[in-house]
Amino acid sequence: MWDIDMWDIDKLDLDAYLTRIGYGGPRTPDARTLRAVHLAHVRAIPFENLDVILGREILLDLGSLQDKLVTGGRGGYCHEHNLLFAAALERLGFTVTRHLARIRLGRRHLPRSHATLTVQADGRTWLADVGFGGDGLVAPMPFEDGATLESGPWRWRLGRDDGFWVLHTGETELYAFRPDEPHFPSDFEVANFYVSRNPHSPFTRHVLVQRTTADARIRLQDHTFTTAPDLTRRLTTELALHLPPADVEALLPHLRQ
Predict the structure, then answer these.
(1) Which is catalytic among the residues 41, 79, 99, 129?
(2) 51, 78, 79, 99: which is the annotated catalytic residue?
(3) For 78-124, how does the pLDDT look when each residue is reduced to its tens digit (9 = 90+)?
(4) Average pLDDT, the chain
(5) How is the chain classified by DSSP, letter by letter?
(6) For the purposes of burial, counting CB atoms within 10 Å of the CB of 244, is it exposed (0-12), middle (13-18) or buried (19 or more)?
(7) Residue 129 is a catalytic residue
(8) Is 38 an active-site residue?
């Protein structure tokens, strides 16, 4: 195990984070708290890649993550969500391991570009992931071969495949990783650079915004809106994101048919 100080978790304003996700429950590092905070985070902070589309650098230091996702009222993608969530969990007293996973979705040799977490609570290891988007987890699940999870209308299963742990939803393999391989801040910086800069990355080619509620995924994708008022209304009322008017105008060319 390596020193968690490398992740600068002391820079997190825990009270501000918990206010942002609307959580006011117990702060004991147990499975009940883990599930409650996980659910609250997923439902409060949208998944989105708008800064990538707007040509801005995605920063993973905790100060930048806090400025954007906590005080800035924005969302982000996996690296932003899960590194922020990991810091919050560690501040609550959990033991957290950060991992890089290979997205599958029908392909097995994609780069390790997804950030996910395992967490210790109540004597068990849990898979926790607030940043997959799409059909990703909304709550933590036991990190055990054959484990299943049901939450609202969604179902997941965890299994083994030639040394990898694989998260499934239905017949779809979402991602795979080896939990015994350590990763460090520099590894996430490299993966984040690929995700946000590589022309083959879906995040550089498509507008992706998603908000998860108790029973639905509300999504904004390409070729959806033609006017700034329509886009502003959808972002604020349905997706809980607030962008300056100039950013809304800059996004419109990416959303017109």
Answers:
(1) 129
(2) 78
(3) 999 999 999 999 999 999 999 999 999 887 778 899 999 999 999 99
(4) 93
(5) ---GGGGTGGG--HHHHHHHHT--S---SSHHHHHHHHHHHHHHS-EE-HHHHTT-----SHHHHIIIIIIS---B-HHHHHHHHHHHHHHTT-EEEEEEEEE-TT-S---EEEEEEEEEETTEEEEE-S---TT--SS-EE-STT-EEEETTEEEEEEEETTEEEEEETTEEEEEE-TTS---HHHHHHHHHHHHH-TTSHHHHS--EEEE-SS-EEEE-SS--SSHHHHHHIIIIIS-----HHHHHHHHHHH--
(6) exposed
(7) yes
(8) no
Q: What is the CA radius of gyration of the chain?
A: 17
Q: Tens digit of pLDDT for each residue in 44-61?
A: 999 999 999 999 999 999
Token pair recorded at residue 171: 């017949």
Q: Is 61 a catalytic residue?
A: no
- Per the residue annotation, which of 79, 81, 114, 168 is the catalytic one? 114
CA angle (95 as vertex; 17, 31 as ends), nearest 5:
75
Instruction: Please give the C-alpha separations between residue 212 and each of 27, 34, 218, in angstroms, as whole numbers.
Output: 23, 18, 6
Residue 77, Cβ neighbours under 10 Å: how many? 23
